[in-house]
Every structure is written in structure tokens, then in C-alpha cells.
């Protein structure tokens, strides 16, 4: 049970990916993320000083089992995203990038056209591209065709904690995808993460729900356990849902 997840040339024992925003201190971020056992942690380029190896965030994430995933949060176009990715590759020495292009500051919804354009260019430049997108099955297939290594459809708007509001579309994406599907954004409770894993998501990415909880360390552990339970349930195959009651014990031959 709990088979390892492979993305590009890396394997992950943990299917819980985490973010670094909104923690009240760098030390709390560090201890919480260690408690989550996450092996892939995304960090916004705009929040770090990429010229400073002793940057407060980066120095706290200097752990052998942690892979940093720079993201392009804050960019508004494909051109800006490609520039940010090249900057991160040079500064952080990784060709992995979480592609985020959301020009609307109110809802932070991803721009599908600019994301597809940027993904195609970044793949040509040799990046491992992990695009944050709306739960759009058609767009997911287009991204797969241009060579991204996974897709990251949202469950609900970033930071909303509303859960899997796009569930019907996530089901279609998971059914059709030939690359890992990582549900990103909107997951606000461990039960949301478990549900995503139960329907067949390959991983989830969680940030706000851990960082702004009253006890981020305990919440990180709760998410870890929920993701493991959800994955185990998926691999064990859930029982089918039926419209009518079906007794779990024989209804005859007891008092007759």
C-alpha cells in the first residue's frame, strides 16, 4: 500500500506537498513542514532573496529530504512566468517550477491561455513544469500534450478552504490523465485531502489550512495521516455506492 509517487526523475514517499506562506514565523514554518513529512515544498520566488543563500526562508528549508519547488506566483503573463522560471533555475539550481499565472488579484484564478503558452515554452527550455490550473479536463489534456510532468487543478480558489468544489471535473481529469494529478488550492481540512486521495488524486498540495490553524504542527500531522489514509483507501478500492439498502447480514433463517 501507499506506493511511491514518481514525477519526472524523482520519487516521493509522501503524497502531501506543502507551501510556505502565511506562517507566523520561519521557525514555525520549519517545524510544521517537518511534521508534515512533505518532501516537495513550494516557495514563492517573490518571497525570497534568490541572491542570498542565507535567506530566512531558504535556510529553514535546508533539509536533505526536502525538494524545493519554486513557484511563479505573482506573474501575470507567459513572458513573465518564463523569466521567473529561468531566474529560479539559476538561483536555486533546480529546473522544477510550479507554473502559476493569475492576473486577477481578487480570486487568483489561473489564466488558462497564458499558462498553456508558458508551459509549452518552459518544456522546450528543459523545465519540469507543474502547472496550477482550473479544473478543466480539456486544458489538462492540452498541457499533457505539450509535455508537462503533472497537472495541478484547483479544488476551490486559493486560500478559500472550501474543499473540492470542482469534484465532478476532478473526477474526469483523474480518469483521463496520463500524468500525475495533484489537487491544489481550496483544501481546508484533512477530510478534504482524504477525499481527493480516495477519488484517485496522486497527491495534494496544502498551505493555508496548515499555516493559519491554531496549531500548525498538529494540523500538519493531521494532513499527513489523512493523505496516507485516503491513498490507502484508493488502493484498497472503495465499495460501490448503491441506491437501495443491502443488508450486511442474512435477513432469513434467524428466528424462523
UniProtKB/TrEMBL annotation:
It catalyses: [ThiS sulfur-carrier protein]-C-terminal-Gly-aminoethanethioate + 2-iminoacetate + 1-deoxy-D-xylulose 5-phosphate = [ThiS sulfur-carrier protein]-C-terminal Gly-Gly + 2-[(2R,5Z)-2-carboxy-4-methylthiazol-5(2H)-ylidene]ethyl phosphate + 2 H2O + H(+). InterPro entries: Aldolase_TIM, Thiazole_synthase_ThiG, ThiG. GO terms for biological process: thiamine diphosphate biosynthetic process. Pathway: Cofactor biosynthesis; thiamine diphosphate biosynthesis. Its EC number is 2.8.1.10. It is an enzyme of class 2 (transferase). Residues 6-250 form the Thiazole synthase ThiG domain. SUPFAM superfamilies: ThiG-like. It is found in: Cytoplasm. It comes from the Bacteria. Keywords: Cytoplasm, Schiff base, Thiamine biosynthesis, Transferase. It holds the Pfam family ThiG. The active site is at 98 (schiff-base intermediate with dxp). One of its GO terms (molecular function) is thiazole synthase activity. 1-deoxy-D-xylulose 5-phosphate binds at residues 159, 185-186, 207-208. Its main location: cytoplasm. The keyword Transferase applies. Homotetramer. Forms heterodimers with either ThiH or ThiS. Catalyzes the rearrangement of 1-deoxy-D-xylulose 5-phosphate (DXP) to produce the thiazole phosphate moiety of thiamine. Sulfur is provided by the thiocarboxylate moiety of the carrier protein ThiS. In vitro, sulfur can be provided by H(2)S. PANTHER family: THIAZOLE SYNTHASE (PTHR34266). Belongs to the ThiG family. This is Thiazole synthase. It comes from Polaribacter reichenbachii.
